[in-house]
Amino acid sequence: MPRRRIGFWYRLAAVICKPPLVVLLRRDWRGIEHIPAEGGFITAVNHNSHIDPFAYAHFQYNTGRVPRFLAKSGLFKKGFVGAAMRGTGQIPVYRESTDALSAFRAAIDAVDRGECVAFYPEGTLTRDPEGWPMTGKTGAARVALQTKCPVIPVAQWGCNELLPPYAKKPNLLPRKTHRVLAGPPVDLTRFYDREMTADLLKEATEVIMAAVTHQLEEIRGEKAPETPYDPRRERIEQRRRTQAQTHQKSGQTVQEEGLGK
Asked: Where is the composition biased (Basic and acidic residues) (predicted)?
C-alpha cells in the first residue's frame, strides 16, 4: 500500500519545530534503513523526556514516513494546537470513557491505510531511576497482532539530558546529542492467529519492549537491568512499606503508652 502524503499541517509543524530542535540538539540517527518505505507499520519508542516526541517526530519526518501519535484527547479541542493535532492526523486517546477503545480502532485503521502509528508503550515518562524502559502496556501489541504489520523497535537518548524527566528547566549547555537507533522488525509471528488473551498480549508486549531495550543498550553501551521497572509493582511495594511503617509506629505508640501507665 502506498504511503500517505505528508500534508500541509505536518509541513507547517516541521517549519515551526525543526529550527529550535536543530539549534538545541546534535543528531546521531541510525537505523533509518529499517523504516519501511511502503505500507502500514508501527514504531515502538521509549519515552524519557517531555520533548522527545518532537525530536523523535523530527527523526521520522526526515525518513519520509511521518508518525501518527496517540495523544491525550484534550490536546485536540481548541486553538492552534488542536487544529495542528487534527491536521497532522494524530490519534486522540479518551481515557476512562466509553470512547477509550476508539484510539485502538483508529490506530488499526491508520495502519490499514498504509500509515505509521508511533506508540510509546510505557504510556508515560519512564520512572526507572536510570532511564531504562519500563514494562509496557499492551496497545501496540494488540494493534500489531490484529494487523500483522511490522513493528519497528526504536530507542532514543539525549532529550532526557536536555530536559530530564519531570524537570522544569532545561540544561542547555553543553549542547546535547539526540541519539536514535531503529532496529529490524520484531518477530511476532509466533503470536499470530491465536486467541488474543491478556497473557498473549502481555507476552507479545514483553518481546516488543525487550527489543526497544536492546536498541537502547546499544546506544548507551551498557546493559539494562534484568527485570524492567514495573510502576504497578512499585506502587504495591510502596503501599506495603507504608503499611508496615504505620503498624510499626502504632506498635511503638501502644508500647510507650503502656510504659507510661
From this structure: 219-240
